[in-house]
Amino acid sequence: MTTLRQRTFQPASRACTGRQTTIHSVCGYCATGCLLTVQGAGDAAPVPEGIVNTGAACPKGWEALTVLEAADRGTHPLRRDERGRWHVLSWAEAIHEFCKRLQSIGQRFGPASVAFLGSGQLPTEEIAFLGSLAKFGMGILHGDSNTRQCMASAVTAYEQAFGFDAPPYCYDDLELSDVLFLVGSNLSIAHPILWSRIRKSRHLRRLIVVDPRRTETAMVADEHVALVPKSDLELFYGIARVLLERDWIDRGFIDAHTRDFDAFARHVRTFSLEQVAARTGISPARIERLAEWIHTGERVSFWWTMGVNQSHQGVRTAQAIINLALMTGNIGRPGTGPNSITGQCNAMGSRLFSNTTSLLGGHKFTDHQHREKVARHLEIPLESIPTQPSWPYHRILEGIVRGEIKALWIVGTNPAHSWIHQGFFRDVVDRLEFLVVQDMYSTTETARLAHLYLPAAGWGEKEGTVINSERRVGRVRRVRKPPGEAVADFTVFRRIAEAWGCGRHFKHWTSPDAVFPLLASLTEERPCDLTGIQSYDQLETAVGIQWPFPASAAVRDHPSTTGRRLFEDGRFYHADGRARFVFDAPREPLEIRTERFPYRLLTGRGSAAQWHTQTRTAKSSVLRQMAPTSVYVEVHPEDACREALRPGQTVIVESARGRLHASLAVTPTVPRGSLFIPMHYPETNRLTHAAFDPESHQPSYKDCAVRLRPLEPWDGV
Ligand code: SF4
After folding, report:
1. Per-residue model confidence (pLDDT) at position 717
2. Candidates 3.40.50.740, 3.20.20.105, 3.40.50.150, 3.40.1550.10; correct CATH number of 96-150+345-432+458-524?
3. Segment 301-358, tens digit of pLDDT
4. What distance in angstroms lies between residue 688's CA and the mean position of ligand 1's atoms?
5. Is there an atom of ligand 1 within 6 Å of 400 CB?
6. Which protein residue has the closest C-alpha to ligand 1 atom 5?
7. How far is CA 478 from CA 25, 116, 197, 325, 348, in A?
8. Measured between alpha carbons, how far is 34 from 583 in angstroms, rounded to an integer?
9. Of 37, 54, 58, which is best to mutate to test ligand 1, by the most ligand atoms within 8 angstroms of its C-beta?
10. 60 CB less than 6 Å from ligand 1?
11. Per-residue pLDDT at 54
12. d(CA 200, CA 180)
């Protein structure tokens, strides 16, 4: 076992290379959390000593600094007048405008009339400052984060099953499994560094990919389970039934560490294999074989991403995966676990500190003792803490439509591109009295709609910490100055706090490194306890530290600090220490295909060179060359033939909500009757249907009904 001491590297993170200072920083794109060497002049490169990436990075990491030099970086605050013309403001004028307009709306319509939307791209200190300033300082009731779009189903699934939002694994488990399931995850392009760890495993006997598409990842798996889209819940219930009937379960683990198994067993017995096969397209014999792989595996792990989370039943599907792990005792041991891989670089920080669904530091708004603890630590009045969590993202937007919310403050996210059913979002924005957008770029689809734009520093231009998918806290570093008058979001929040008149609540929030110990102290005795981390320097020396990391020396000196997994003692976070089997009847998809709209549209990541709305990645000439610059649609050859369409032809894809023009890519990797369009193009969400998981309120991006036809002369271009 590698010890903490062995895995630290010397000299620490700052080394002088000639005239330039080299600094180590966790990458600011995905939640893998690769450690990069960054230099102010524009170079970024993977760090060989990085525990996570061990000297490798995907193209986005190599190009991480280049995108900061884009010509459309916001350099000054801007106000848009009634005729749509932009006017440059000083920061004093901009902050005055911000406070005057929002306070006026709040006074006229009440505290629920202003809302905010944050981002899992911000460091934890900024996420916490936004949520605390908005709720405890400005009196805003409702706010959410763009993490609702990618992680909410996993969060809810873990909370209900384990008693806390706790992804249980460490990345070492990727290399320690002998049977490994990837569910709804195109890992080779979405998380290429994690994929490389699977590829170098010496233990893996069987890699099974469950995905309707024959993705780049599925192509090299030992087994591709190409199920009917959105039938994964039934598939996992069918597998559970086989495990149960063959008595391939870990009765000792179930009895000692779980609850509600008998009810779950009764539930899955109602799913005959013939019925599951008819729904999923996977034969009974194949379902039995999948169960057999789980049974014969010594260390079985299940990893999932957006194919599960972004669904009308994402929570129950994630829990069906969790149930397979629990009933077979594949949790809390090396190479096991029901493991959700996070998307954004600090989605995990947002989950704990955004102050939206949960109260700062992994607490509950509804718990009086939790509110008292947070008020005491932050030295703020107890009454300033709301007693209920925020409305989720889509309820906030619906509140705008109803006229209850009049102003929206959007920080570091681009919903005019990324939100499901874009036409609805545009309608929402039109109803706002005041929209503020705070972002690195003044040209995002959302920033262009703002009444007030505030220019923010980006990754590489500010300090803080992020938490990666394996719960590892690491540092992000400032290596260059932001352009013009742009400042770190942290600085914007400080200026707002002073101008708003609530600066006294934030007297300790002077800098990210001053805030970090405050946030760590808040987590005391919570499952995410970070009280053992005393300083940023400690994070750097250890090359990141996973939570929990309480202040007790016994844990701090634990030899496996660099690769720890949860639940090794079989104790979960519910009061009785037991995990729950949670299950439900499958729900029908919320938009049914019809004769008029006969295809099912799947959306997802297009390539390793593209990130979400391409706000940053499109700024790199290197990354631009690695993926098509304009929207394309993938269609199965038989469907293309039936529609008399040729590869490369411009087609129209249309749903009940909108249409787009796309170049046709004919490929057998998509199932018959389905189309695939990457999410990175601004047109994609013109088509998607605003359906949500009822538990997590996460949008279901991967299932709407569309039609496909050639571009006709009367369509225009
Ligand atoms: S985007 Fe993700 S995989 Fe790529 S370098 Fe950054 S952290 Fe690593």
Report:
1. 55
2. 3.40.50.740
3. 999 999 999 999 999 999 999 999 999 999 999 999 999 999 999 999 999 999 999 9
4. 27
5. no
6. 61
7. 9, 26, 29, 41, 21
8. 35
9. 58
10. yes
11. 84
12. 13
